[in-house]
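From the methods appendix. Each design record in this collection lists the tokenized structure first, followed by the designed amino acid sequence. Records were kept in a plain field format so they could be parsed without special tools. The example shown here is representative of the layout used throughout.

RECORD:
FOLD TOKENS (468 positions):
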């Protein structure tokens, strides 16, 4: 089967940058403004920044693919507003749910198209770049292309465990007006790995947050190199940096079932010591859980300037549009005993608004980043891939369980599941965790998941080619 995805190809990545309203009329057939954009290093940097801006939209990782739709179908929430109730029932044909699913498909391929625009021009224009910028721009565009395809695959195709050789999605590597043929699940996974491995190799020696630099901090830069180029080298945690690429590979390899490579990548992130798990001494003193995690544990994240108004207040609260709510009963089930009383996440990531009766998730209050990859996931991947409960115990120690060690003969898989449920609320990862392991039913739910793990592709994507 071939899919018509070229309708999303354009320079949409630069649309939301300040002062760029004149880009709204960019058409894929018009090359004039594209050529002007890619005449300078600043243009490439802006185009790259634009991709992250597109990804942070509510239709994508700023909502649907994190705290919104994906956590609805992952049954994180007990109830949502009436407009989104069909998502909890896996009614993928209802109007509001179909809109969410279609927006994920279109948004991801739109961002992929912008990655390809950069990659189509970057080698030819290598001479316009200052030291390290060419490698970084190209590497991030390649790695983002892999990241975005991987999430389309996880949503719109069977899991690797369920159907590695089943026809899946197109993997788009060029700017083209021709329909793109489907690849199998396994073929897409291999393409993702090829892109991200190549990107990681390219950026390794130049990324300030990579292994070639002894230390990195997002505050108090001492080296002028970091603030050259309009701050391009600042805030590497808000980009898919070297360790973000490595963490992504750990996630992809585990999805594929390659535990050896998954462990290798997860350990590299952990052992790199560029990120640290929270300490109890950091809690309090006005620090929010979200701000502490973003400063210490986020490996790669998206910057959202209006996080509270534009995201948290939209999804969480009785007056919010979406009203994603977890009941006290569900919350008690997730955190268990003694977690309800001692787990730092239970104590610090929920809030009750004045005058309201329900408690909502508050991890995005007072922060400006949404996590894409976190250090805690690397510990969970390392524990699963190695069978060593020490990784899991380390994470638990940094979540309040230092006096509650795992039993010697504990059910490691069950303990890992418990941590995923506590750790990734409102982050869009639980649904994919259950799908990867082919859960027949989800915890606290009696719904049989057969058929519910694969989102339907937009109707207008199936107009061309032989439908199989």
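DESIGN:
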């Amino acid at each position: 089967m071939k899919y018509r995805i070229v309708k999303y190809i354009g320079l949409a990545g630069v649309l939301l940058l300040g002062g760029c309203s004149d880009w709204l009329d960019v058409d894929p057939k018009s090359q004039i403004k594209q050529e002007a954009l890619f005449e300078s290093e600043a243009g490439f940097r802006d185009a790259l920044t634009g991709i992250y801006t597109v990804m942070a939209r509510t239709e994508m990782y700023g909502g649907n693919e994190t705290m919104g739709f994906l956590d609805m179908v992952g049954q994180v929430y007990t109830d949502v507003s009436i407009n989104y109730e069909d998502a909890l029932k896996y009614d993928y044909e209802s109007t509001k749910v179909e809109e969410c699913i279609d927006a994920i498909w279109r948004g991801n391929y739109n961002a992929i198209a912008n990655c390809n625009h950069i990659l189509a021009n970057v080698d030819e224009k290598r001479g316009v770049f200052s030291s390290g910028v060419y490698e970084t721009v190209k590497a991030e565009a390649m790695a983002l292309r892999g990241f975005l395809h991987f999430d389309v695959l996880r949503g719109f195709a069977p899991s690797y465990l369920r159907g590695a050789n089943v026809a899946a999605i197109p993997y788009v590597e060029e700017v083209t007006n021709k329909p793109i043929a489907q690849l199998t699940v396994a073929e897409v996974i291999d393409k993702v790995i090829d892109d991200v491995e190549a990107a990681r190799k390219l950026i390794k020696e130049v990324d300030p947050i990579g292994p070639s630099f002894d230390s990195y901090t997002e505050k108090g830069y001492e080296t002028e190199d970091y603030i050259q180029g309009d701050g391009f080298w600042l805030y590497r945690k808000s980009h898919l940096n070297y360790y973000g690429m490595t963490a992504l590979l750990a996630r992809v390899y585990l999805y594929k079932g390659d535990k050896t490579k998954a462990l290798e990548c997860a350990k590299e992130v952990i052992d790199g010591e560029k990120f640290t798990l929270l300490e109890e001494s950091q809690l309090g003193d006005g620090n929010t859980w979200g701000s502490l995690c973003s400063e210490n544990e986020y490996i790669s994240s998206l910057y959202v300037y209006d996080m509270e108004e534009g995201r948290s207040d939209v999804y969480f609260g009785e007056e919010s549009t979406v009203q994603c709510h977890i009941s006290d009963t569900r919350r008690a089930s997730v955190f268990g005993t003694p977690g309800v009383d001692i787990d730092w996440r239970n104590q610090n990531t929920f809030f009750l608004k004045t005058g309201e009766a329900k408690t909502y998730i508050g991890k995005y209050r007072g922060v400006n980043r949404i996590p894409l990859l976190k250090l805690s996931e690397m510990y969970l991947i390392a524990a699963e891939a190695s069978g060593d409960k020490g990784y899991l115990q380390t994470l638990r120690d940094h979540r309040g369980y230092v006096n509650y060690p795992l039993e010697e003969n504990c059910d490691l898989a069950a303990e890992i599941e418990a941590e995923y449920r506590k750790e990734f609320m409102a982050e869009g990862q639980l649904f994919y965790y259950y799908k990867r392991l082919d859960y027949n039913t989800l915890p606290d739910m009696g719904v049989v998941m057969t058929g519910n793990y694969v989102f339907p592709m937009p109707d207008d994507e199936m107009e061309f080619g032989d439908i199989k």
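APPENDIX NOTE: Confidence is low (pLDDT under 50) at residues 6-30, 219-223, 463-468.
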